[in-house]
Amino acid sequence: MKTSRLEAFSDGVLAIIITIMVLELRVPQGPTLHDLLGAATGLLTYLLSFVYVGIYWNNHHHMFQLVARVTGGILWSNLGLLFCLSLLPFTTAWMDEQAFATTPVVTYGVNLLLCAIAYFILQTTIEHNQGRDGALATALGRDLKAKTSPWIYLLGILGALLVPWLGIAIYTIVALMWLVPDRRVERYIAAHNVADD
Amino acid sequence: MKTSRLEAFSDGVLAIIITIMVLELRVPQGPTLHDLLGAATGLLTYLLSFVYVGIYWNNHHHMFQLVARVTGGILWSNLGLLFCLSLLPFTTAWMDEQAFATTPVVTYGVNLLLCAIAYFILQTTIEHNQGRDGALATALGRDLKAKTSPWIYLLGILGALLVPWLGIAIYTIVALMWLVPDRRVERYIAAHNVADD
Amino acid sequence: MKTSRLEAFSDGVLAIIITIMVLELRVPQGPTLHDLLGAATGLLTYLLSFVYVGIYWNNHHHMFQLVARVTGGILWSNLGLLFCLSLLPFTTAWMDEQAFATTPVVTYGVNLLLCAIAYFILQTTIEHNQGRDGALATALGRDLKAKTSPWIYLLGILGALLVPWLGIAIYTIVALMWLVPDRRVERYIAAHNVADD
Amino acid sequence: MKTSRLEAFSDGVLAIIITIMVLELRVPQGPTLHDLLGAATGLLTYLLSFVYVGIYWNNHHHMFQLVARVTGGILWSNLGLLFCLSLLPFTTAWMDEQAFATTPVVTYGVNLLLCAIAYFILQTTIEHNQGRDGALATALGRDLKAKTSPWIYLLGILGALLVPWLGIAIYTIVALMWLVPDRRVERYIAAHNVADD
Questions:
Q1: Quick one: which of B39, B133, C124, D197 has the most CB atoms within 10 Å?
Q2: SS3 for A69?
C-alpha cells in the first residue's frame, strides 16, 4: 500500500476529531453574556485539544514524507495513534464538564501521554523498517523534543494531582513547545532531494 | 509541504463543519406543521452559516491556487481560520436556541468577525511570503471587499445591540456581497498561465 | 477551479450526511428484542435515506465526469444541492420520531423534491455552460427518469396526505427506479473517448 | 468510474464511522476515578469496533488494488457494506448502554455477521466481473479466513445466548485473527507487477 492512502484516511480521521469536539461543547442555556462566560473554559479546553490535534496532523505529515511504503506494522501503529487521538474529545468533554476536577485533568494528561507513546511507537516502527541509517532516523537526529515530551506530560500529571490548573499549565507549555516550527524533515528533504509525492 | 495536503485537510474540516450544523438543529417535538415552523428560524440560521462556510471554502481554494508551498506560518494561520470557522456551529446553535436574543446575535457577529480577521491574517501571511509583487497580492489588487467586510460586521454587531434582527440583516448582506462571483484570481491565472495542480 | 476540488468536497459532505444519520437513530432504552423492534422503523427510514444519498452520490459523479471546469454558477448550484441533501438527516429523524405522522412524511417528500429540483438546476447550469450540443446534454438525451421523478415525488406527497405509508411506498419506488444502473454517461464516455481524470 | 473515486468515498465514510463512535461514549457524570471506571466497558467496546472498522478499511483497500473499474454491481454492493458497517456505532452503543445484556450482544454479533456477508457479496461481485482466473480470485486463493469467519460469528452469537461475555470473547478472537497481516494481495502484486494507482 502506498502512503497516500494511509495519509488520506488519517487526514479524514484527524479532520473529524478536530471538528466534532465542538459538538461536545454545551451550548449555553441562557441568553446572557454570563451564560456565555460559563462556556468559556469549554472553549479554552477545545482550543487546547484543537492545537494538539493540529500538531499531530502537522508532525504526522512531515514524518510520512519520508516513508515510501506502508507495512502491516506501520498501518496498525498508525491506527493505534488515531485511536488514542480519538479519545481526546471524550477526555476533553469530561475535564470541561467536571470543572477541572483532579481526576479528569489527570486523565486528560494520561490521554496526551498515550498519544505521545503511540506516536513514538509509530515512529520507531518506521525507523525499524528503514534500517539504522534510514531517512527518518537521520532526519530526526537526537529528537530531543519528542524524547522530553512524555516526561513533561508525566510532570503535568503529577502537577495536576496537586493543583489541577498546574497540570493544565504544563500541558499548555508542551503544546507551545511544539508550535515552534520544526525544520528537520524539511532540511533533510532539501538536502537529500526526496521527491514530494 | 505541498498545498494539496493542506487543502485536502481544510476541505475535510470545512465539509464536516458545514454538515454537522444540521445535527444541532432540534428535531421538532410534535408532528404538526406548527411544530415544523417552530424549527424554521433554526433552518434559516443554518442556511446562513452554510452559505458563510461555502463562501470561505470557495475563497480558500481560489487563494491557494496561487500558493506554491506551505510554511509553518501559513499552516498555523490556516488552522487558526479553521478554528474560528469551527465555532460557527456553536454560535449558530446558541443564537437559534435563544430565539435571537441580543447577546447570542452579537456573539455570532463576533464569530463572523473573527473568521474574517483569521482569513485576513492567513492572506497577509501568504502575501508576506511571496513578497510585494507576489502572485496573490497582484491578483487581489486593492481587495475592497475583504477590507470593507470587517467594518460591516462591526456595523452588524452594533446594529444587533439595538435590534437583533438588524444585526442578522446586516450579516446576510455581507454574505450576499460575497456570493457575487469574484474573478480576480481566475483572471490572474488566465493572464499569467499559472499551472493548475 | 478544476472539478476534482469540487468533487472531493462534495464527496466529503455526502460521506458525512450518509453517516451521521446513524447518530440520529435512538439507541433502544431497554435490553430486549422488543426494544430493538421499536427502533426497526428508524432503521428502515435510515436505509431509505442512505440509498437516496447513495443514488445522488452515484449520479453526481457520473455527471461531473462530463464537466471540464467549474464556474461560479456550477459551484453555487452544487452547494444548493448539498444543502438540500444535508436536510435529509433532519427530516428523516422527524419522520421516524413522530411515528410516520402525516406532516413529517409530507415534509420528507418535500425534502426529496427539493433535492431533485436542486439537482435539476445543477444539471441545467452545466448544460447551459456547455452549450446546446454539449457533452452532458448529448449524453443524457431525453432524460426521462429525471423528468418524471419530481412528478412521482409530488404524487408521493399527495399520497402521504391520504395515508402516510402510501407516501413512503411511492418514495421507495422512486429510489428503486434509480437503483437500476444508468449507462448513458458511461456509453457517451466509451463512444466519445472522454479522458477520465 | 475509476476505483479512486469509490475508494475515496469509502475512506470518508469509514473515517467517520470509526470516529463518531466516540461521540456515543457517555462522558462520566461525576469527577472520580470510579465514574471513569463506569465508562471503561464503553471504552473497550469502542476499541473492539474501532479495530473491526480498521480491519475492514485495511482489507477493502487491499482488495481494490486488484480492481480496475467499478461497475454498478460493485458500487451498490460496496454501499451495502458501508451501510452494515455504519450500523456498528448503533449496536456498539446499545450493547454498552445495556451493560452487555444478552440481546444487545447477540445483535452486535449479527451486525458483525452482516458486515462479513456484505463483504463476501462485494468480493464475489468483483470476482464474478473479473472471471474465473481474475486477479482477485487468484490472489485470494482458498481464502480460508474469510470463509471461516462467518461461522465463528455464528458460534459467537450462540455463545452470547448462553453467556454474553462468551460472545464478546469470540468476537474478539475473530478480530485478533484478522489482525495477523495477510500478504496474499501484496504477494500477488509483487508477482504480477500490478501497477499501483
A1: B39
A2: strand
C165 Cα to chain D: minimum distance (Å): 23
- Reported as a single tens digit per residue, the pLDDT across B151-186 is 999 999 999 999 999 999 999 999 998 887 666 766
Identify the bridge partners of residue A69 per DSSP, sorted by sequence position: A2
- SS3 category, B2: strand
Flag if C27 and D23 touch (Cβ within 8 Å): no
Q: Are B160 and B106 in contact (CB under 8 A)?
A: yes
Q: Of C20, C28, C196, which is closest to D2 when you measure between CB atoms? A: C196
Contacts A13 to B, Cβ<8 Å: none
Cα gap B32→C196, rounded to integer Å: 48
Contact B20 C16 (CB under 8 A): yes
- φ, ψ of residue D69 to 5 degrees: the values are -135, 150
pLDDT reading at A46 higher than 70: yes
Q: What's the distance, Cα to Cα, between the start and end of chain C in Å?
A: 14
Alpha-carbon gap, residue A30 to C39, rounded angstroms: 33
For A106-130, the DSSP string reads HHHHHHHHHHHHHHHHHHHHHHHHH
pLDDT tier at C178, thresholds 50, 70, 90: confident
Cα-flanking dihedrals φ and ψ of residue B97, to 5°? -65, -25
What residue segments make up the domains of chain B, in order of their start? 4-192
* Dihedral over Cα of D80, D86, D91, D94: its sign: negative
Q: Is A62 exposed, middle or buried (0-12, 13-18, 19+ CB in 10 A)?
A: buried
Please state, in angstroms and rounded to a whole number, the distance separating the CA atoms of residues D197 and C43: 37
Between CA D38 and CA D40, with CA D39 as vertex, the angle to 5 degrees is: 95
Q: In Å, what is the CA distance from D159 to each residue of B176, D80, D102, D116, D162? A: 61, 27, 10, 18, 5
Q: What does the longest C-alpha to C-alpha distance in chain A come to?
A: 61
Q: Which residue has the cell 460591516?
A: B152
Q: Are C21 and C88 in contact (CB under 8 A)?
A: yes
- To the nearest 10 degrees (0 to 180), the angle between helices D164-179 and D102-130 is 30
What are the φ/ψ torsions at residue D111 (nearest 5 degrees)?
-60, -45
**For the segment D71-80, what is each residue's pLDDT rounded down to a tens digit?**
888 999 999 9
- Is residue B132 classed exposed, middle or buried when 0-12, 13-18 and 19+ CB atoms within 10 A define those classes? exposed
Q: How far is CA D7 from CA A67, A145, D15, D70, D197, in A?
A: 22, 36, 12, 10, 12
In this prediction, residue D57 has a pLDDT band, given cuts at 50, 70 and 90, of: very high
Q: What does each C-alpha distance from C39 to C36, C50, C94, D99, D149 come to in angstroms?
A: 5, 16, 14, 19, 28
D153 vs A113: CA distance, rounded Å: 35
A122 is written with which cell numbers?
Answer: 509509530
What interface predicted TM-score (ipTM) does this complex get? 0.88
Indicate the SS3 state at residue A2. strand
Please, what's the b/e burial string for C130-157 (b: 16 or more CB within 10 A of its CB; e: otherwise)?
A: beeeebbbbbbeebebbeebbebbebbb
Alpha carbon of B171: minimum distance to chain A alpha carbons (Å): 20
Interface test mutation site (partner D, options C7, C41, C58, max chain D beta carbons within 10 A): C58
* Coil, helix or strand at residue C171: helix
Please write the tens of the pLDDT for every residue from A63-97. Answer: 888 888 888 889 999 999 999 999 999 999 999 99
Q: What is the dihedral of CA B48, B50, B51, B57, to 10 degrees?
A: 150
Phi/psi-derived region of residue A131, left when phi > 0, alpha when psi is between -120 and 50, beta in every other case: left
Rg of chain D over all Cα atoms, to the nearest angstrom: 18
Q: C181 pLDDT exceeds 70?
A: no
